[in-house]
User: Which sequence fits this backbone?
């Protein structure tokens, strides 16, 4: 009698197979979307989250809300800096033709696809910035420090204070409220920011001016 070798081959359950097929299909659709003519390089998710860099993109609604707030706060012809907040930058770029300028300060070099508006930024060296990035040259700075730590907020705060003419919109954990007030003079808003994937930590927005987020 011949051994039935098939018995030794591990079989995937139908549930696992279905999940795998769904995953590959989603991947194909995403790649197809990227290569199709109508692909918008600024849409949220065009550059995927890298959790090792502590990246968590905002939901579409939150990114839109923060981008609109920044435009109003910056005023006509205003300059906006997005520090470690790429999904807000992407939403601002979708508003092509609006009367403002924006740049993105980001550690992840994948965002260099955005050309001259991309500035490599490492919060560990908060003032290691290009010479053409003049102090107090932005009408509003939106910042989302990558880590929920006092050290990260303290260093990012140095960058924010260097760049802003005055207005600050900070997005970070609710547990950083006291530190944020001490370092940047910002107060918590009623608006609750959401992410495209749920975070374990409660997340909030903080401002130091009369904003539309209340």
Assistant:
């Amino acid at each position: 009698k011949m051994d039935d070798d098939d018995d030794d081959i591990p079989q995937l359950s139908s549930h696992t197979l279905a999940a795998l097929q769904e995953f590959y299909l989603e991947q194909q659709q995403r790649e197809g979307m990227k290569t199709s003519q109508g692909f918008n390089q600024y849409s949220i998710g065009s550059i995927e989250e890298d959790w090792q860099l502590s990246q968590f993109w905002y939901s579409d609604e939150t990114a839109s809300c923060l981008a609109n707030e920044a435009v109003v706060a910056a005023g006509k012809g205003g300059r906006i800096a997005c520090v470690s907040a790429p999904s807000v930058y992407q939403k601002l770029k979708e508003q092509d033709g609006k009367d403002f300028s924006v740049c993105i300060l980001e550690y992840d070099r994948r965002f260099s696809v955005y050309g001259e508006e991309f500035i490599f930024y490492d919060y560990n060296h908060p003032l290691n910035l290009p010479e053409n990035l003049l102090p107090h040259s932005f009408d509003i700075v939106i910042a989302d420090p990558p880590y929920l730590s006092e050290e990260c907020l303290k260093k990012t705060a140095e960058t924010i204070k260097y760049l802003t003419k005055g207005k600050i919109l900070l997005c970070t954990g609710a547990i950083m409220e006291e530190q944020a007030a001490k370092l940047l003079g910002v107060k918590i808003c009623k608006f609750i920011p959401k992410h495209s994937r749920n975070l374990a930590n409660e997340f909030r927005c903080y401002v130091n001016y009369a904003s539309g987020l209340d």
